[in-house]
Amino acid sequence: MEKKKNVLERWLEFREEELECGLSKEDKKHMYDFEKCADMVLNCVDGEMYDFAKKELDKLEEDVLDSLQHFNKKYYMAGFNDALEIILKMNKKLYLTV
Q1: What Rg do the C-alpha atoms of the chain give, in angstroms?
Q2: What is the pLDDT of residue 3?
Q3: pLDDT at site 10
Q4: Under 8 Å between Cβ of 45 and 53
Q5: Rounded to whole angstroms, how far apart are CA atoms 17 and 62?
Q6: Are the beta carbons of 38 and 61 closer than 8 angstroms?
Q7: Of all helices (H) and strands (E), which one includes residue 24?
Q8: Cβ 81 vs Cβ 9: under 8 Å
Q9: What is the block-wise mean pLDDT of the chain (98 residues), using blocks of 10 residues?
Q10: Which pLDDT value is given to residue 52?
Q11: How does DSSP classify residue 98?
Q12: Please, how many CA atoms are within 13 Å of residue 33, restricted to the half-sphere of its CB?
C-alpha cells in the first residue's frame, strides 16, 4: 500500500507542475484575485485596524489555499487510484483468459 501511495504522490507532483505551466485563457479567467480583494478591503480600514485586518486577510488567504490544495490532492489521488485499480483488474482478467 505504501509503495502505491509513493507512486501516486510522485504522479501528483508531476501533474501539479505540468498543470501550472499550461493554464489556458479560460483557466486564468476563473482564477480568483485575492490580492485585489484584500486591497479593496484594506482601503476601507484606517489606523490600528489596518495592521490587524492585513494580518487576518493574509491568514485567510493562506488557509483557503491550504484547504483547496488538501481537497484537490485528496480527490485527485482517489480518482487516479480508482483508475489504476480498474486497469490492474482488467489486465489481470486478460492475463487469466490467455
Answers
A1: 21
A2: 67
A3: 78
A4: yes
A5: 20
A6: yes
A7: none
A8: no
A9: 70 71 79 90 93 96 92 82 83 71
A10: 95
A11: -
A12: 7
Coil vs helix vs strand at 74: helix
Answer whether 87's CB lies under 8 Å from 7's CB. no
60 C-beta neighbours (distance < 10 Å), count: 13
- CB-CB contact of 79 with 12 (8 Å): no
Closest CA to 64 of 29, 35, 22, 94: 35
pTM over cut 0.85: no
Q: What are the residue boundaries of the structural domains of the chain, listed by start?
A: 2-97
Residue with grid cell 501511495, as numbered in its chain: 5
What DSSP designation does 22 have?
Answer: T
67's CB contacts (< 8 A; 6+ apart) are none
Please tell me the number of Cα atoms within 13 Å of 63 on its side-chain side.
Answer: 6
Euclidean distance between CA atoms 59 and 40, whole angstroms: 17
